[in-house]
């Protein structure tokens, strides 16, 4: 079987979608009947991670839109594919070049309401199936698109062995002045368009928590100044730490600084960061009104709160801070790469049967 | 759902609690809770609590009130339902609490131990309760955010008396019956007695969304734990959140959640059904959630047959289409006249509304229902009252010099006088008698005294002390905190409880409002359409395209009410009611 993956980014990409695509490729590469995978990415921004042997990663495609189309056409001329996977709804119009029904992957908010491009709204009805990272994303897509074909839920995978419970890294403790503090952590892009993350809500709760509780806001973005001003207005500027951009290699240590990972968001398609935090044994608080609900397995792996209810967020934080011991929840194995890979294989077999 | 009472002799000089008084207060509320009843008295004679119980969650004797905690230090009487009690129980159990029953009442006791007065911030439901804490000899009192469940207090400076009904407090025989001119004036101005007034000077409503302690110094200042205006103000800055998802989808998700909580019950849950969007959408969502349509009840009046006001044919058609076991209950003049003595006996405070709820609740009880879902609150939530369009127009009009002189509207003078502010415009729109007309109704002195203390325009304006930031939010706050609280919810409470029926209102839910307020602020008056579109399958066109009509009862025809300058003759009805319930 030959598989073509059209995607925004994968190897050398940054963020959740790139990671998902890399794991997807790894899972496809393990599929016994799969002889070749060709990946056509839109962008490459970082040093590339190792690529599996039977994967052809088309670097030349990432030089711009024209290059991407040119690379795709060349790949299509050279190879006849059994399955085309469209890794993002925004690529649906260009995926038509492959002249076969693609399997569409939806990650989150991009699929929660009709797309800006009316053509894509129509093209959705012509896909072979839709894979969503959560049932919530699938249901929200179905509610406006009325897509009647096959749908699959494929939650993100976490390789827990890359994380683990570690002592707090003294260098980071010193850098962020966290000695003797209890730490709340949220990691994400800090931009106006993603105010749904819940940074504001945690800040608003902070004055009601003990003075030794600090809030580490990890990530970068144009909304940092506004949040910093808000922290000053609330009188918690000295208890709010903005870390700026976090290197991938520092992430496990960053999570291990936290006593609680809290992200009462309204906009997560799934919320991979919860899996990372749990893999570090950090108690997590997520939202019952977005994909975080599924990352926390309906509350089995962590605490779910209504993000509009500040009192509930406060109580959940207090309860989580009171937990005596850290542990990696057993149920996290539901998201192990092996399970992810099994799910991918099942989906591929069903859509190519 | 119950009737509760408490007498607490907080001052050292206060006489011990009279057991007969507590019994009498509690017994007066018998229809609120015919399943069981009980009283509890402290050994030192300083406190007495009473309860009448309508058993809906945990039907076993374990749920009986007054309920004492394991330590014997806390005693509670509670009226209402805590819809998220299972979530709260799980959290408490994780924190080490152990329970003896499955009732929400016991959850309240454990929450008080664990969270103290902050517990109210976590409660999703309709409630009025009081907890006697013997450890420090004080009483904790709380009422739900919207004021769905009533609670009244009389404080004579030495003893506080608390009950679910004004008539309950009076039945104890120790509360003065001296009238309150402000409450009386409020009734004639608005059609219901505006909180915190009652028609008795000694009795006050406990403020909705508030809680407080009563200790040796008497009642403490109340803490407001929920403000509707504040929710809308906050939503104003959260509009980005509202645009992430299709409005109908997001509304559907949240209403679905509210409905799921409101369906928590150990007895069957039915529904009131009209031909309006709110009740039909809720019934459709109930059918979807439970994969079985609920039993539905619709009222019909001979006098309206064949007219637009008769919603029964469309309601019956819809019920048939979704497979709901349906009852169309025809009410006649003879039945109304026969019910009137009991109707007025059960009416706790004078009101011009409540007749429809009386009969639809009676019909539901005849169908052996103990719980019914109502679409009440949908117009306030989704901005579908005419007031959402008209109030801003009134304000604009009133600000144009001499413009009102050209109006032929009978309220033109009032528009000129009051309409320059939203609060004044609201008075003009919702008012029954204008303040200057009251001397003709009450006499010069009573009207002057009542109006002075009532200070109606300022009272309306105070709802907007926190500015919601948009006209939609302002009007929604006014309608929810005034008309809905003082009239619709209160009337629904007494008129349904008179038939031992619990009415649940998924669209009047503090959590739901917080969740969808950003969506409402963005969607404005389109929100009702989004709500109608949230049902699966969508509501049929004959319901969605139907012109909105207010629900009315043919009182004019039944009582041959004299002309009073209004088409509905509600002013005459108000006088009729006041003669029977006013004192």
Topology:
The complex is a heterodimer of chains A (353) and B (583).
Chain A: E1 2-7, H1 16-29, E2 36-41, E3 55-57, H2 65-78, E4 83-86, H3 92-95, E5 103-106, H4 118-123, E6 129-132, H5 135-145, E7 150-153, H6 170-175, E8 182-187, H7 199-205, E9 213-218, H8 224-233, E10 240-244, H9 251-257, E11 260-262, H10 272-279, E12 284-287, H11 292-295, E13 303-305, H12 310-321, H13 337-352
Parallel strand pairs in A: 1-2, 1-4, 2-3, 4-5, 5-6, 6-7, 8-9, 8-11, 9-10, 11-12, 12-13
Chain B: E1 2-9, H1 19-28, E2 36-41, E3 47-53, E4 67-68, E5 74-82, H2 85-94, H3 104-115, E6 125-133, E7 138-143, E8 152-155, E9 159-163, H4 166-171, H5 181-190, E10 204-205, E11 210-215, E12 218-219, E13 223-224, H6 228-236, H7 239-242, H8 247-262, E14 269-272, H9 277-290, E15 296-301, H10 312-322, E16 326-331, H11 333-346, H12 355-366, E17 371-373, H13 378-382, H14 387-398, H15 412-418, H16 422-430, H17 438-442, H18 444-454, H19 456-461, H20 471-497, E18 502-504, H21 510-523, H22 527-533, H23 541-544, H24 555-559, H25 570-581
Parallel strand pairs in B: 14-15, 14-17, 15-16, 17-18
Antiparallel strand pairs in B: 1-3, 1-9, 2-3, 4-5, 5-6, 6-7, 7-11, 8-9, 8-10, 11-12, 11-13
């Amino acid at each position: 079987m030959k598989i073509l993956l059209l995607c925004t980014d994968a190897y050398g990409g940054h963020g959740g979608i790139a990671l998902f695509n890399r794991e997807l490729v790894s899972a496809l590469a393990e599929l016994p009947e799969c002889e070749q995978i060709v990946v056509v990415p839109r962008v490459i921004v970082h040093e590339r991670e190792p690529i599996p042997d039977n994967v052809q990663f088309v670097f030349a495609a990432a030089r711009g839109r024209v290059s991407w189309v040119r690379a795709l056409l060349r790949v299509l001329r050279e190879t006849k594919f059994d399955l085309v996977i469209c890794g993002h709804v925004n690529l649906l119009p260009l995926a038509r070049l492959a002249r076969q029904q693609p399997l569409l992957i939806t990650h989150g908010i991009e699929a929660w309401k009709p797309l800006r491009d009316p053509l894509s709204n129509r093209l959705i009805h012509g896909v072979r199936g839709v894979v969503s990272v959560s049932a919530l994303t699938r249901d929200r897509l179905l509610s406006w698109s009325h897509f009647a074909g096959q749908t699959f839920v494929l939650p993100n995978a976490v390789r827990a062995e890359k994380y683990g419970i570690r002592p707090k890294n003294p260098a980071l403790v010193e850098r962020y002045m966290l000695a003797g503090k209890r730490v709340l952590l949220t990691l994400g892009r800090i931009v106006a368009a993603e105010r749904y993350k819940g940074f504001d809500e945690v800040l608003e709760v902070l004055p009601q928590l003990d003075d030794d509780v600090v809030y580490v806001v990890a990530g970068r973005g144009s909304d940092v100044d506004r949040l910093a001003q808000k922290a000053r207005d609330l009188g918690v500027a000295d208890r709010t730490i903005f870390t700026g951009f976090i290197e991938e290699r520092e992430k496990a240590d960053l999570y291990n600084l936290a006593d609680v990972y809290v992200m009462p968001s309204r906009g997560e398609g799934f919320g991979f960061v919860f899996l990372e935090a749990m893999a570090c044994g950090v108690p997590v608080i997520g939202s019952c009104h977005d994909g975080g609900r599924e990352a926390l397995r309906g509350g089995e792996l962590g605490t779910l709160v209504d993000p509009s209810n500040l009192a509930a967020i406060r109580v959940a934080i207090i309860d989580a801070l009171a937990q005596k011991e850290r542990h990696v929840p057993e149920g996290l194995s539901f998201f192990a790469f092996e399970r992810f890979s099994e799910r991918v294989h099942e989906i591929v077999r069903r859509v190519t049967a | 759902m119950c009737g509760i009472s408490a007498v607490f002799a907080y001052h050292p000089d206060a006489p011990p609690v009279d057991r007969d008084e507590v019994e009498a207060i509690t017994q007066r509320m018998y229809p609120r809770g015919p399943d069981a009843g009980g009283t509890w008295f402290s050994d030192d004679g300083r406190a007495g609590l009473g309860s009448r119980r309508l058993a809906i969650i945990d039907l076993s004797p374990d749920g009986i009130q007054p309920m004492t905690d394991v330590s014997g230090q806390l005693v509670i009487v509670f009226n209402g339902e805590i819809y998220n009690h299972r979530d709260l129980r799980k959290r408490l159990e994780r924190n080490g609490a152990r329970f003896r029953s499955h009732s929400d009442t016991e959850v309240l006791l454990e929450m008080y131990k664990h969270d103290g007065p902050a517990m109210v911030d976590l409660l999703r439901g309709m409630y009025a309760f009081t907890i006697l804490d013997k450890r420090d000899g004080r009483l904790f009192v709380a009422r739900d955010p919207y004021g769905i469940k009533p609670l009244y207090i009389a404080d004579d400076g030495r003893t506080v008396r608390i009950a679910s009904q004004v008539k309950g407090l009076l039945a104890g025989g120790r509360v003065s019956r001296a009238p309150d001119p402000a409450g009386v004036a409020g009734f004639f101005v608005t059609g219901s007695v505006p909180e915190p007034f009652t028609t008795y000077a000694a009795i006050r409503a406990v403020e909705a969304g508030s809680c407080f302690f009563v200790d040796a110094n008497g009642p403490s200042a109340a803490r407001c734990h929920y403000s509707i205006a504040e929710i809308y103000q906050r939503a104003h800055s959260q509009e980005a959140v509202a645009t992430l998802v299709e409005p109908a989808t997001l509304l559907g998700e949240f209403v679905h959640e509210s409905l799921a909580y409101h369906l928590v019950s150990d007895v069957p849950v039915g529904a009131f059904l009209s031909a309006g969007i709110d009740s039909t959408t809720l019934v459709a969502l109930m059918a979807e959630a439970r994969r079985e349509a609920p039993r539905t009840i619709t009222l019909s009046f001979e006098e309206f047959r064949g007219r637009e006001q008769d919603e029964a044919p469309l309601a019956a058609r819809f019920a048939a289409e979704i497979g709901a076991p349906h009852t169309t209950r025809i009410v006649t003049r003879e039945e109304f006249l026969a019910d009137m003595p009991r109707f007025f006996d059960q009416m706790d405070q004078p009101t011009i509304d409540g007749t429809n709820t009386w009969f639809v609740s009676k019909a539901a009880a005849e169908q052996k229902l103990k719980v019914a879902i109502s679409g009440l609150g949908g117009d306030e939530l989704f901005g579908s009252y005419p007031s959402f369009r008209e109030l801003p127009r009134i304000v604009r009009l009133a600000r144009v010099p001499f413009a009102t002189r050209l109006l032929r509207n009978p309220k033109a003078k009032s528009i000129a006088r009051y309409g320059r502010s939203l609060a004044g415009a609201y008075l003009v729109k919702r008012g029954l008698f204008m303040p200057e007309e009251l001397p003709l109704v009450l006499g010069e002195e009573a009207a002057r005294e009542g109006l002075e203390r009532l200070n109606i325009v300022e009272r309306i304006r105070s709802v907007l002390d926190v500015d919601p930031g948009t006209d939609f939010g302002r009007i929604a706050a006014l309608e929810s905190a005034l008309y809905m609280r003082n009239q619709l919810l209160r009337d629904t409470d007494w008129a349904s409880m008179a038939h031992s029926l619990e009415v649940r209102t998924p669209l009047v839910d503090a959590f739901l409002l917080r969740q969808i307020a950003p969506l409402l602020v963005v969607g404005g008056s389109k929100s009702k359409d989004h709500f109608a579109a949230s049902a699966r399958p969508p509501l049929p066109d004959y319901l969605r395209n139907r012109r909105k009509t207010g629900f009315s009862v043919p009182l004019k025809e039944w009582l041959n009410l004299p002309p009073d300058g209004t088409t509905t003759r509600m002013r005459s009805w108000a006088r009729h009611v006041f003669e029977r319930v006013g004192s």
